[in-house]
Protein 1
Amino acid sequence: MKFKLPNEALISLSHELQPVSTEALETNHQGRILAGTVTADRDSPAADVSAMDGYAIRMTQVQPEASLPVMGESAAGSPAPEMPSHGVLRIFTGAIVPQGCDAVIKREDTEELGSEIRLKLSPAEISEGQHIRRAGENATKGSTVLKPGIEINGAHKATMANFGCSTVAAFRPVRVTILTTGNEVGTFQQEAPMPWQLRDSNRESIATLLAARNWISIVSVEHCIDDRNQLHDTLADRLKTSDAILMTGGVSMGDYDYVPDVIRDLGGKVVFHGLPIRPGKPVLGAATNDGKLLLGLPGNPVSATIGCQRLGIPLLACMAGKSDWLPKAPVVQLANSGNKSIPLTWLRLAKLVDNGVAEPVITQGSGDLVSLGNSDGFVEVPPQQSGEGPWPFYAW
Ligand code: AMP
Ligand code: MG
């Protein structure tokens, strides 16, 4: 096989994909991908401020055993008062440090005697500038505070708010069509299927994984029977309104597996067809000549769900403009892992049992929806390796 590891296949296919365009975004930033930089509209902090509750002092007043009158105060939310030439000012965390103040003495380092204070520290223990946050020490006006390619979260929103940024350039969401295939699969979700029929579970797992990302917009979720012409026409039509099509089923070597042929008929460039992974080996990754993604996942529900998470989401993230689109999964120890190894990347269903600890979920195979439903995600064990790891863990 062309690629040894999943990420090699992803990187290779990513070169064929076209990122989506950008737009100005005024509201609902969360989960969207930033396309421009956010810059500081003023220094942060905007002025010298106190880092502590205490007393603002001039260095000339720092003397052994000095008793110093408290001449006033500087409170948060008020402009700076004048610094007295003799004595100190009471000052609060975040309040402006007035011109002429050289240091802040913490309250705990003073003896408070009503209208005056006595310093508990010796002059050698007080340094110029202590407990003062300088204007611009976090960022100076005009500097970059957020870079393009991030998925905007609450921390980013706080930074944006601090610098008065509400409208940003964002990548527009990637438009995705989900297309399940197979004559045995039906939309009788509520009714009882015949024994040779199946309820469509892939549409649910894939749509749910995609819907959790605000940088994805699901255009439609549909089903196609195993008919070459119908599959061709459906794909050709959905490509008009989608940036990517995620398919399940029909991707192997069976007589009814038309997905590879139809993708080629449509001019798709197949970057991989088959990867050394379990489950999900028959997976097909292709791109149209205008950079749209065609991902054919195997029909088995465990393969389709794992393949969507491990391969589909990163490729869509790349198209969505995310700079860190290759997954960086946290690692877990895999308790009770056994010592079996396989010559493939093994994506094992797992359940978290403690902080940083997971256990394999016993499964009858890639059609076992009970084991899928009992899992929190899967661990990725590299080829020929076994044991507790730690291994990367991909949560649902
Ligand atoms: P295929 O990859 O088309 O050979 O499909 C493999 C197996 O996956 C089928 O025999 C079905 O048992 C199952 N399958 C395919 N599509 C779905 C689906 N949408 N939902 C649930 N199971 C499916
Ligand atoms: Mg099929």
Note: Residues 180, 182, 184-185, 198, 200-202, 248-252, 254, 298-301, 367 surround adenosine monophosphate (ligand 1) (CB under 6 Å).
Protein 2
Amino acid sequence: MKKILIVEDEQRISRFLQLELKHEGYTTETSADGREGYQMAQAGNYDLIILDLMLPNLSGVEICRRLRAEGIATPIIMLTAKDDVSDKVTGLDVGADDYMTKPFAIEELLARMRTALKKQTKSSETPVLKGGKITLDRNRYEVFFDSDAVVLTKKEFELLAYLLMNKNMVLSREQIVENVWGYEYEAETNVTDVYIRYLRSKIDEKFGTSYIKTIRGIGYQFKDE
Ligand code: CA
């Protein structure tokens, strides 16, 4: 059974969604508060989050931004009260999968939920990332260079996964920090340099490769071409 988190402070809408989703065979948990909803989204293993834009204590946009910065990829459908283009753009910019303008037809929301859930299943089916002779398996939490196991710490693993996901692209330190460590570390971009050094010693220096390139004045790139 798919578990859905509803973060919505309008009782009437929250109650309506709970009933409709239950009827469709979903289980639901709810919060009417931005901060609480954010903490639930962080801790709970939800299949999808329905997130209102205007919430007490923490806005839907900020919740979405934080979750994505923390690497939480749960599909998010944003609800906006007004037909305001800039709100929708902001929601999608910070990583929401879709948005609906209130009032909405429940059938439309259910259809978008099915699409978002399908997308999620697909992406979790491809947990293996490759670059050069490196294979990283996110389900098994393993890294190999050819057939040699490479032992990494959790942050080294996440950093390498992020580099491999964006293979051959130049990534700024800010981008890396935001995606691997989260937005609250934004000011400390030198953590990137430190962890890149660790990764290099465990991969490039150990195996005599040069996958991890320094792009002067910008950041780093995993290059296998
Ligand atoms: Ca609201």
Note: The chain is about 45% helix and 20% strand.
